[in-house]
Structure formats: C-alpha cells, structure tokens
Amino acid sequence: MRIGVPKEIKNHEYRVGLIPSSVQELVHHGHQVLVETGAGLGAGINDADYVAAGASIAQGADQVFAEADMIVKVKEPLAAERKKLRKGQILFTYLHLAPDAVQTQDLIDSGAICIAYETVTAANGSLPLLTPMSEVAGRLAPQVGAHSLEKAQGGRGVLLGGVPGVPAAEVVILGGGVSGSHAATIAVGMGAKVTVVDRSADALKRLSAQFGTAISTVFSTRAAIEELVRRADLLIGTVLIPGAAAPKLVTRDMLKTMKPGSVIVDVAIDQGGCVETSHATTHADPTYVIDDVVHYCVANMPGAVARTSTFALNNVTLPFALALADKGWKQALAQDAHLRNGLNVCEGKVTCEPVAQAHSLEYVKAESLLGL
Ligand SMILES: NC(=O)c1ccc[n+]([C@@H]2O[C@H](COP(=O)([O-])OP(=O)(O)OC[C@H]3O[C@@H](n4cnc5c(N)ncnc54)[C@H](O)[C@@H]3O)[C@@H](O)[C@H]2O)c1
C-alpha cells in the first residue's frame, strides 16, 4: 500500500502522523511511504531522517494526497485538505466530527474511508488512541501551573515544592483518571502537597494503591470541593464524563474564595471545562485572570510538546496503521471490532452513531457495510 503523510496545516500544530521508526516498520512490511517535505520539522524530524527510514519525500501536499492509498495525519483535515481526498482513500487521524457538521458533510462527499483515532476502543472500554494525549496533558498541567504561580506570570509567587522551612504549595486535582493520575505523578515529584478528588470509588482505590501516602484522596462532594478550592494554590481540572460536557464543579462563588494569585489549569476545557469561569485559550495567549485567579485553559496542551506527543501517539497508532496497510481496510475492520469502532464515515455513509445523531444524518452500521 502507498501511505501518505502530509504536513499538518492547522494553526500551531507541530505534530506529524508518522515518525521514522513507524515508516521503517511499514516499509519493512512491504509498503511505500510518501512524506511531505518538512512534515516532521515541528517535532524535530528532518526529511533526511525519513529518507533514511525508507520514505520518499513529496514536494507538496497535492502529491501526497494524489498518490497515497492511505493518509495518516494527526489533526482533522482542514477544508483545503478535504478537497484533496478521493473515493476509496483511507484517512486515519483525529476527526472530532460530532461538533463539526461542515467537515462531516465534506468527508461524506469525498467517498473516503475515514477512521477516527478518538473512537477506536480497547477491550477494557478505554479509548487507547486518546490516552497518550491525556497522559501528556496531565503531566504538563503541574509544569504550566508552577510557571503560572510565578509572580511575573500573575501568580502568588509560590514555589510548588517549597523549601526547607517554607511549606510546599497545595495542589488539588479534580478527577483522578488518566490525566489526573499523571498530573499527580509530576506534582508529587515537584514536592507539592497533592490531593486528588474523584467520584469513582475504583479510581480512588487505584490512586491510593499507586501513590500510598504521597497524596490524599477525597471523594467528590460539593462540600469537599468547596473546602479544597479555598485551600488550593494550584487547582487542576481533569474530570470527564465520556461523551458529555464536563460538569462545572467549581462555581463562580467558589472562585471568589480562592487565594489571590492562585492558579487554575482546566485540562478538561476541550469538553467545556470543569470551572464555571473557564474559556478556551491558545498557546499564543494561554492565561487570563478573573477574581485574581489565573486561568490556564489551553485546549490542545499536547501541542506544546510536539515531539513527545508525536512519539507517544505513534506508539499507539502504529499497530492499527500496520493492520490497515497489511490487510486493507475491509479485512482489517472486519477482523477487529475495536478498530471498526473508529470508522466514522465510509464511502459516503456515516457509520458512527453519535456523529449521525449530532447532525441528524442517517446512521449505517459499519457491520452492515462490511457484510458482517
Ligand atoms: N486540554 C487538553 O489539551 C487535553 C488533552 C488531553 C485530554 N484532555 C481532556 O482531559 C479530560 C480528562 O481526560 P482523561 O483521559 O483523564 O479522562 P478519564 O476518564 O481517564 O478521567 C476522568 C475522571 O474524572 C472523574 N470524574 C467524573 N466526574 C467527576 C466528578 N463529578 N467529580 C470528580 N471526579 C469526576 C472520573 O471518575 C474519572 O476518574 C478530558 O476532558 C480530556 O478530553 C484535554
């Protein structure tokens, strides 16, 4: 199969769909890989690295889209890229179609086979191609929070780990899932006093087993959150109710009780945020202040560490990319129900129920398209 890797064109997107070791694996399986010139530069990968791995370099996106049987990307295709897709071509990338009617219609019109990273599942019910980005965002949260606590950034001038004779900062993490537990790992490592709040007894048990007495775990109630919000120097929001908007656990009234210069990092902002005063920000202008509280609400935090994120993403996407290339999409999807769950749009039909519902479009089961 001919696999194409275009350069990402979304604003401030520096990740790339395939890294050289993934290219090498695909080439070893007998496939050809065409990478757009400069596609890896944002992640610190040169054209020469791709050539050494066995790829060819294309001078522009037009050639990549025209020649490839499968396009492997990171972000959803923008309008200019969607125009280049063709019937029967496989698109393997993040899509996030439910809130995007225009993209959904363009993908339907393209006739391409569109497989979304974010809806591929695993046997334990998780979303394995989303997990690494939650890990990255979780680990970044204490780092950006610590920076925002610095006086020059509008923070209260508190060092997360304290120093001998001066207490460490109090870090409160709302939600102890993937992002929350990774945030706790880094906050503990930086010497902070860490409390994690979750409403799942299983999550609290898991955290307690992982961290022992290095953190406190608290069951999520309004009263508990009120008390912890008042005490926090750094509040990190990582709650998720799958498929739903994030619950607003921190209200405007609670914000008024926070210490001046304290910091909120609302990782859950991509689902609307779990703080009433959160609104999405960008890496170019990541913070704003309300009621003397610094808010950091960047919706694509992993983009800040494009290289780590690219490698983490490839670790989980490569086995699926190989299956699609080796077997062809029909057989690969027929044999793997979890990969099949990633199929969102196929040859003009919407095969992901929530996407069909969101846009009042006809839903066709992937199984019926595949004759299963
Ligand atoms: N901003 C970014 O760049 C970025 C990057 C990656 C992920 N995210 C987002 O981070 C969020 C968390 O993702 P995740 O993979 O860690 O999810 P997860 O499902 O692993 O964890 C969410 C946790 O929230 C808990 N929770 C739900 N409701 C709660 C409540 N009322 N009180 C306390 N805890 C509650 C759940 O029990 C669960 O343990 C998601 O919205 C995800 O999209 C954002």
From TrEMBL:
Keywords: NAD, Nucleotide-binding, Oxidoreductase. The keyword Oxidoreductase applies. GO terms for biological process: L-alanine catabolic process. This is Alanine dehydrogenase. Substrate binds at R15, K75. Residues 4-137 form the Alanine dehydrogenase/pyridine nucleotide transhydrogenase N-terminal domain. Residues 149-297 form the Alanine dehydrogenase/pyridine nucleotide transhydrogenase NAD(H)-binding domain. Belongs to the AlaDH/PNT family.
